[in-house]
């Protein structure tokens, strides 16, 4: 990014690594203009984006973009000043990225970091961009893809496993959490809990969270793949799939779905859609239609809260 040029808009909370490091420190380092919206309200964000001729929108998790795209003002906002939109914190659905870029004319670049240290990888602003990749390895950072069972066997290009990282920007440990340190910090490596793979050009692709992986009848199922499919349905605004205990299969998949405003959607329609597009062991066994999905303070869809609710309702 050029110095003394860009106008940044930050909507992310500053207690979060994204809102603090990238969305606040980087604009200051660039000697740019920083516009801060104290509370995320989609129409207000869009108003400031147009009013201040924002060139870099820090964005954040996909829920931020989804909220903007669902806002009444979205259709009439002037996005012509935007040059870069960025996302992190959770994977963006493919269809959401395509829709955003088609409407705004601005590319949306994903990266990955964590509160324990950031960045890990980043998409190049100039150069080759690979759709749905979180980019290439940050300077002075090492990344391995290792098997999810032991975390010791380094996997070849193209094979998915847990992402482990090390570098000068990462934490040395969690305060007063010996058990968590033993699990996450081993031989100088920080085990991220994310599952991903490298392609032949060194671009990292994130598949899902390790803890979200479900074991259905002996098969590894990554719910993000199901989320991606559900997001492509024209009547679905948001979706969250996850594994639930199943006496016969070990785990089975349940999906919570939010319909788009003004549309109708039934569980049977969603189940048939999945049956038409997924192999049998990946298909949800049940679908719950809801008006909204819970979120974390950092605006990520809170699958843990959804699963807790589902377990409570099952009794």
Task: Characterize this entry briefly.
Helices cover 26% and strands 29% of the residues.
Key structural traits:
five-stranded parallel β-sheet; five-stranded antiparallel β-sheet; alpha/beta; 315 residues; globular
Describe what this molecule looks like in 3D:
With 315 residues, the chain is an alpha/beta fold. The chain is 26% helix and 29% strand. The protein has a 5-stranded parallel beta sheet, with helices on both faces. Helix 4 (94-104) links the parallel strand 4 (84-87) and strand 5 (108-110). It is globular, with a radius of gyration of 20 Å.
Write the SSE topology.
Layout: E1 7-10, H1 17-29, E2 33-36, H2 42-51, E3 56-57, H3 62-70, E4 84-87, H4 94-104, E5 108-110, E6 112-114, E7 117-122, E8 136-137, E9 142-146, E10 161-166, H5 178-184, E11 185-186, E12 189-198, E13 204-209, E14 214-216, E15 219-221, H6 223-231, E16 236-246, E17 250-259, H7 267-277, E18 284-289, H8 303-314
Parallel strand pairs: 1-2, 1-3, 3-4, 4-5, 17-18
Antiparallel strand pairs: 6-7, 7-8, 9-10, 10-12, 11-12, 12-13, 14-15, 16-17
């Amino acid at each position: 990014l050029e110095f003394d040029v860009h106008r940044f808009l930050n909507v992310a909370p500053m207690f979060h690594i994204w809102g603090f490091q990238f969305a606040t420190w980087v604009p200051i380092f660039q000697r740019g203009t920083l516009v801060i919206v104290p509370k995320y309200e989609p129409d207000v964000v869009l108003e400031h984006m147009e009013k201040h001729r924002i060139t870099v929108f820090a964005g954040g998790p996909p829920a931020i973009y989804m909220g903007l795209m669902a806002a009444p003002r979205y259709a009439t906002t002037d996005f012509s000043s935007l040059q870069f939109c960025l996302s992190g914190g959770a994977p963006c659905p493919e269809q959401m990225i395509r829709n955003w870029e088609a409407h705004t004319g601005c590319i949306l670049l994903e990266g990955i970091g964590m509160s324990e240290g950031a960045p890990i990888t980043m998409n190049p602003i100039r150069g080759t961009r690979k759709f749905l990749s979180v980019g290439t390895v940050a300077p002075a950072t090492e990344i391995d893809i290792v098997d999810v069972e032991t975390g010791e066997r380094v996997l070849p290009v193209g094979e998915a496993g847990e992402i482990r990282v090390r570098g000068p920007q990462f934490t040395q440990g969690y305060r007063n959490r010996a058990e968590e340190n033993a699990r996450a910090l081993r031989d100088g490596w920080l085990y991220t809990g994310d599952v991903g793979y490298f392609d032949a050009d060194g671009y990292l692709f994130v598949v899902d969270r390790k803890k979200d992986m479900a074991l259905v009848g002996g098969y590894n199922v990554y719910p993000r793949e199901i989320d991606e499919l559900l997001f492509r349905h024209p009547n679905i605004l948001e979706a969250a799939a996850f594994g639930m205990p199943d006496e016969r299969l070990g785990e089975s998949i349940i999906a919570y779905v939010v319909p788009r405003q003004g549309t109708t959607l039934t569980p049977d329609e969603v189940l048939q859609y999945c049956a038409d597009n997924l192999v049998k062991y990946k298909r949800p066994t049940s679908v719950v239609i809801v008006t909204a999905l819970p979120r974390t303070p950092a605006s990520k869809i809170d699958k843990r809260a959804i699963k807790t609710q589902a377990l409570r309702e099952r009794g």
